[in-house]
Amino acid sequence: MSTDTASAPLFRYAAVTFDCADPAGLSRFYGEMFGLSVAYTSDDFVFLGGKDGAPGLGFNRLADYRPPTWPDPAQEKQAHIEVGVDDLEAAEARLLELGATKPEAQPQPDRWRVLLDPAGHPFCITTLV
Description:
Blueprint: E1 15-20, H1 23-34, E2 37-41, E3 45-49, E4 56-61, E5 81-84, H2 88-98, E6 112-116, E7 122-126
Parallel strand pairs: 1-4, 5-7
Antiparallel strand pairs: 2-3, 3-4, 6-7
Domain VOC: 12-128
Protein name: Glyoxalase
InterPro entries: Glyas_Bleomycin-R_OHBP_Dase, Glyoxalase_6, VOC_core
């Protein structure tokens, strides 16, 4: 592995893509959350473009999509995102208005909150990042 920091990296972080049953619906939720616009759409995929080259989000239709069952390991989450916020209470309230749900299990609610997007993917909001 090269430690030369003067050269440009070969790769850049571009996006995270979520599997789901309804790409259009889930993209609306995350578009509202992050203020992102649709950059590409088809029947089976929606991509929200990041502003000024920032990373975006993709949403891919999966015919047999099964949402994670966090914290029950029966259908494990494969990954989740951390969303930085200034005010946990205000952010949680807004995300619930947008369609998120709040599971009963909250490991450290004073530091972060676990929410589920409309397709069941867990994500956290936190003031720590």
